[in-house]
Design brief:
Elements: E1 26-27, E2 32-35, E3 56-63, E4 66-75, E5 79-84, E6 94-96, E7 101-106, E8 109-117, E9 128-136, H1 145-148, E10 152-154, E11 159-161, E12 168-170, H2 187-190, E13 260-264, E14 283-290, E15 294-300, E16 309-315, E17 321-326, E18 335-341, E19 344-352, E20 360-369, E21 387-389
Parallel strand pairs: 1-3, 9-10, 20-21
Antiparallel strand pairs: 2-9, 3-8, 4-7, 4-9, 5-6, 5-8, 11-12, 13-20, 14-19, 15-18, 15-20, 16-17, 16-19
C-alpha cells in the first residue's frame, strides 16, 4: 500500500499505483493538453516507435463506455502516442507512429496515454499538444470533467440527461419512441411539445387553448385542412403557423406524390430568396410530406426545359434551409442530397434565371429509408414512388423495410 511500499509509486504524490513512471502521471481533463518532454525519463517503449529509446510522458484517462476515441499529438519534434490498459502494461490498445490513434467500442475504465519522443537522438521538443476526444455510447455516463470540458460528447441524436449525479447519454423524450405524456402522440414531429427530435420533454397535451396552431384542432389558415400532418403548411405539430411557404405569393400547390413532378414557371413570381444562387427569375414551391425519417433524400431538376435552375429544401414555412444547390446537375440544372432528414412537412423551392421564366421544369425526388422503417404510406406506392427501402422491398406482412 502506497509509497514507499508500492514500487509503482515513485513518490507519495504519485497518482497511480498501477503504472510505473519516474515522472508524475497527470490526469487528462481537457481536449488539448500542452506539455513538454524536456527533462523526462524513458519509461515506455511503444511497439510502433522507430526508436524505443525516446523519453516520454504518461497520462491517466478515465472513461465511460465510448463508441469512438481519438488521440493524437503534435510537437516541435516527432512524437508517438500509445494507449495502455488499466494495468499500464501488456499489449497496447493502440499505437501511432507519428500519427493518431482511433478506436471504437472502448469499454469503461481507466487507461494510460503515453506520449513518446520518436527518436532518442532528437532534442526533446519544448512543448507538444496532446489531443483527445470521444463519443459516449447511449446509456453511458456523461458526468465529470471530460464531458464538461467537451472532450467527450454524446452520440448524435442523444443528449446528456437524467438525475443529477448520474447523468447519462440518453435519447431525449422527443425521439425515444415513448408516449411520455400519454397524449397519444409520440416524438417529433407528431407531439406538439417537440420542436425538434432533440426536444428534451413531451409535456403539452392538445388540442387546447395554449396549443400551437398546428395542434389546436382548428383550420387556422382556412384551407380546409387542420393541424399536422394533414395541413402541409405545418412542419410539425409544434409549428405555430399553418400557412405553407407564406413568402410565395403563387399559393400552395399539390404536395409532391410521385418521384417526378412536372410544372412551369409561366405565371409565377419572383418571391423567394434562395440561399445558394443569384437567380432573379420566377420561382415556385411544392409541399413534400415525409411520413417517416429519410436516410438519404435526393432532389434534382434533370429533364427540365428550363436550362438554369436553383433548388432548395426548406421547412414548410420556407424559412429554415435543409439543403440548397445551384448548378449541381447537368449543365446549369440543380441537384441536392440531404442525409438523415426527420419526418415532417417540407417545401421544395425551384427558381429559374430570368431567361427561363416562361419554361417548364421537372422536380425529381427520391428518398431511401433505413431498415425497420414503416413503409405503408402512399409515398412508397405506385410505379414511380418517392420513397423506397434502402435494401430490399417493403414487407407485405409487417409493412416495414427489411
Amino acid at each position: 500500500t502506497d509509497f514507499p511500499s508500492d514500487p509503482s509509486c515513485k513518490s507519495a504524490a504519485g497518482t497511480s499505483e498501477s503504472c510505473t513512471s519516474v515522472d508524475p502521471i497527470l490526469t487528462l481533463t481537457g481536449s488539448n493538453t500542452s506539455d513538454t518532454l524536456v527533462g523526462t525519463a524513458n519509461d515506455f517503449a511503444p511497439t510502433c516507435a522507430s526508436d524505443p529509446g525516446g523519453v516520454d510522458n504518461v497520462y491517466q484517462l478515465t472513461l465511460p463506455n465510448l463508441l469512438t476515441l481519438d488521440i493524437s499529438a503534435d510537437g516541435a519534434s516527432a512524437v508517438d502516442v500509445s494507449l495502455l490498459d488499466s494495468t499500464c502494461g501488456g499489449t497496447e490498445l493502440g499505437c501511432g507512429d507519428f500519427s493518431s490513434i482511433s478506436l471504437t467500442d472502448v469499454a469503461a475504465g481507466t487507461y494510460f496515454v503515453v506520449v513518446d519522443l520518436s527518436f532518442s537522438s532528437f532534442e526533446s521538443p519544448d512543448t507538444y499538444d496532446l489531443f483527445v476526444n470521444g463519443t459516449v455510447a447511449l446509456g453511458a455516463s456523461c458526468e465529470g470533467a471530460l464531458f464538461a470540458n467537451g472532450v467527450l460528447t454524446c452520440e448524435t441524436g442523444s443528449v446528456c440527461g437524467g438525475a443529477a449525479g448520474s447523468h447519462k447519454c440518453i435519447l431525449p423524450e422527443c425521439s425515444d419512441g415513448i408516449d411520455n405524456n400519454h397524449d397519444g402522440k409520440i416524438d417529433y414531429p407528431d407531439d406538439p411539445s417537440c420542436a425538434s427530435p432533440l426536444g428534451a420533454s413531451e409535456t403539452t397535451i392538445c388540442p387546447g387553448p395554449s396549443c400551437p396552431a398546428c395542434a389546436n384542432g382548428a383550420d387556422d389558415d382556412g384551407d380546409g385542412k387542420k393541424d399536422f400532418p394533414a395541413d402541409f403548411g405545418c412542419a410539425a405539430a409544434s409549428s405555430t403557423s399553418e400557412l405553407f411557404c407564406p413568402a410565395d405569393n403563387d399559393g400552395a400547390t399539390t404536395p409532391i406524390s410521385s418521384a417526378t413532378t412536372n410544372s412551369t414557371f409561366v405565371g409565377a413570381h419572383n418571391d423567394l430568396a434562395l440561399d445558394c444562387g443569384g437567380g432573379a427569375g420566377h420561382d415556385r414551391s411544392f409541399p413534400l410530406q415525409l411520413p417517416v425519417p429519410v436516410q438519404s433524400l435526393t432532389i434534382d431538376t434533370e429533364g427540365s426545359q428550363a436550362t438554369d435552375t436553383i433548388l432548395e429544401l426548406f421547412d414548410a414555412q420556407c424559412f429554415i434551409e435543409t439543403a440548397c444547390n445551384d448548378d449541381g446537375g447537368t449543365g446549369f440544372l440543380s441537384s441536392l442530397t440531404a442525409s438523415n432528414v426527420p419526418a415532417g412537412n417540407y417545401a421544395v423551392a425551384v427558381q429559374a434565371t430570368t431567361a427561363n421564366n416562361g419554361k417548364s421544369f421537372v422536380i425529381n425526388a427520391h428518398g431511401t429509408v433505413a431498415s425497420g422503417t414503416v413503409c405503408n404510406s402512399a409515398l412508397f406506392k405506385g410505379a414511380n414512388p418517392v420513397l423506397t427501402c434502402a435494401t430490399g422491398t417493403c414487407s407485405a406482412t409487417t409493412h416495414k423495410c427489411p
